[in-house]
Amino acid sequence: MIYENGNVWKAAKHKKVLLFAMSGLGKTHVSSMLRNDGDWFHYSVDYRIGTRYMGEHIVDNFKKAAMSVPFLADLLRSDSISIASNISFENLAPLSTYLGKPGDVARGGIPFDFYCKRQDQHYAAEQAALLDTPAFIERAQNLYGYQNFVCDSGGSICEVVDPWDKTDQVMTSLSENLLMVWIAGNEAHTSELVRRFDKSPKPMCYQPAFLLSSWEKYQSETGLSPDKVNPDDFIRWTYARALAHRQPRYVQMAQWGITLQTDDVKNIYSPEYFEDLVASALDAKVEQSA
């Protein structure tokens, strides 16, 4: 870890952290608070993915839909209108909409092969965006004058790294430049995440092997052919499995840094309080290692 203990962290002129957790457990809440109330640069990995690495794919998807409308198609061909993605830190809908859901096209799904291609695009984009982090640390300090840096990672970070591999390129790059901070939830938080997702299922990024296994098992259990799968039913069925699949990966990632509890994080009201929580977690880890 780049900070040996809580005192070193508190005294550091440049504080640099990466927050990782399941989506919905407070990463963006904390990052936004640090950005708004303190001298912190907020680097959103999902925003970077949706603008730098997948922005053209997203806009082309919009244009493809528009081209199916003759009136809009004529305007696009003559460059009379433009179509853009209004993605933001708080609104990542253009990115999740592009990822889509596999299954019955008549119910809003896309063919599984096409879906896997978009998943592969996201996988590569997320790795690239994470590897961009050190450059943005330097940019935040030298260009914008920020003293502190928070990387707001996506919930699927654990899918694009191998935390058991001490030579993993992404994990090594991140841990050498930032303090890795896991926001850990408990069973009650997981149940609430499942409840929210069941109410409003949203596209996700999955590890390829896990996705293929889930797709095959779902068809085996339901007896449905790929083109008859209800897209929302499939991603609802997959979500709880995905959380269970990700948990040990998050746990192993936490070995590269420290852990904060969601119940503590949700009560963070100032940068100073966040810094105190991190200092306590660092000291606790040092004590456990002694």
Strand order, largest beta sheet: 2-3-1-4-5
Radius of gyration: 20 Å
**Helicity, as a percent range:** 55-70%
Give the topology string: H per helix, E per strand.
HEHEHHHHHHEHEHHHEHH
Give the uncertain stretches in residue-range form.
none
- What share of the residues does DSSP label as strand, in percent? 5-15%
Instruction: Report, as a whole number of angstroms, the end-to-end distance.
Output: 15 Å
Largest sheet: 5 strands, parallel
- Count of individual beta strands: 5
What structural class do helix, strand and pairing data support?
Answer: alpha/beta
Please characterize this protein's 3D structure.
This protein has helices spanning 6-11, 27-37, 45-53, 55-67, 70-77, 93-99, 112-131, 133-142, 169-177, 187-199, 208-222, 231-253, 262-265, 271-289; strands spanning 16-20, 40-44, 148-152, 179-184, 258-261. The protein contains 14 helices and 5 strands. Helix 3 packs across helix 4 (55-67), helix 3 (45-53) packs across helix 7 (112-131) and helix 4 packs across helix 6 (93-99). By secondary structure, the protein is α/β, with parallel strands linked by helices. Strands 2-3-1-4-5 form a 5-stranded parallel beta sheet, with helices on both faces.
